[in-house]
Amino acid sequence: MEKELLIECQRNDRNAQRKVYEKMAGKLYTVCKRYLKNDEDIEEVLADTFYKIFTKLNQLQNHDIFEAWAKKIAVNECLQKLRSMKSLYISLDDQFVESPDTLADTVSFEKDILKLLNFLPEGCRAIFNLFAIEGYPHKEIATMLSISEGTSKSQLNFARKKLQKLLVNHNI
Question: Is the distance from CB of 94 to CB of 122 less than 8 angstroms?
Fold first, then answer.
């Protein structure tokens, strides 16, 4: 992201904010889609994310890390939304959110992981995303989600096994 554009955003220049939104909306939407399935929830979280970005941009010391900073805000907003939905606290006995019979219809090769993640319970999916995609360690995930480190590890293991089973059973 161009430093000058971000400086204009800090000055509340609406045109600059629109440009930043246009450049970042797709990337941040994809991040949100990994955590949330409902389009209304994604749009709500995306709006909250951009509100925080534009109101807290003056706190960002290094403009070179803007995209990573914005992505972290999006992840945190998704987790906050999941907490409010009380869907992070799942048992290992939880079933698929959707019928696995629809897997063959919904999984396409170019978006296989995103679509497969939709077949995991939301809490399990959040932990998988945080660990496997975002790169957070279990200790930090446990702190972020107010769960034990062991719960984070077991939910990740559960997610991996479910994903492997889906891949094997459907020859993906």
Answer: no
Find the helix packing angle between 66-84 and 138-145, rounded to 10°: 50
Name residues whose C-beta falls within 8 Å of residue 47's C-beta, 6 or more positions apart in sequence.
Answer: none
Tokens 């079933």 -> residue = 95
Token couple for 65: 């890390």
Interval 33-78: pLDDT, tens: 988 888 999 999 999 999 999 999 999 989 899 999 999 999 999 9
C-alpha 135, offset from chain centre: 12
Long-range contacts of 53-60 (CB under 8 A, 24+ apart): 53/20, 53/24, 54/9, 54/12, 54/17, 57/6, 57/9, 57/10, 58/10, 60/6
Q: For the chain, how long is the longest CA-to-CA vector?
A: 54
Q: Is the pLDDT of residue 137 over 70?
A: yes
DSSP character at residue 88? S
Provide the total of helices (H) and of strands (E) in the chain, helices listed first: 9, 0
Rounded to whole angstroms, how far apart are CA atoms 118 and 96? 9
- Name the residue type at position 162: K
60 sits in which H/E element: none
**Among candidate residues 29, 36, 63, the one with its CA nearest the CA of residue 126:** 36
